[in-house]
Write a structure and sequence with these properties.
9220_t:CDS:1; single chain; about 0% strand; mainly alpha
């Protein structure tokens, strides 16, 4: 029922939008409905919950083999930097296979081992993650 409620509410709200008021900058003009749009923000709680369901089901977990590789790398790496660069934090969007992740991680860690000094590789930091 909530998906049909979502469909009805979206259709009703979209029909009220004047096409002449849309510009190329409006995501809706490109058939994109963002969860941050007024259209979604003004849905009833049930319809909004239905709209957000696919997003809420997406969860990326690091394969244990990748985690273990990183822990070993950290244990064998010492540095003296004081801050952690923002680009080291993961945004949980990758979808590659474990094999691909292992290959990429090995290449990255091999590269970093020789040149990169960073507190993110400190044993205390990794243990806190």
């Amino acid at each position: 029922q909530s998906s049909s409620q979502l469909t009805l509410e979206l259709q009703e709200k979209i029909n009220k939008i004047s096409e002449s008021n849309l510009t190329w900058r409006d995501p809706l003009a490109s058939k994109v409905i963002s969860d941050e749009s007024d259209l979604v923000q003004n849905l009833s709680s049930g319809a909004k919950k239905s709209f957000m369901r696919p997003f809420n089901k997406m969860q990326v977990q690091t394969p244990s083999i990748i985690h273990d590789m990183c822990v070993i790398f950290v244990k064998n790496f010492h540095d003296d930097m004081e801050t952690i660069p923002q680009h080291l934090f993961h945004d949980n969007t990758w979808k590659e296979s474990d094999k691909t992740l292992v290959n990429v991680t090995e290449n990255i860690l091999d590269f970093l081992r020789d040149i990169w000094k960073n507190p993110a590789y400190n044993v205390e930091f990794v243990s806190a993650q």
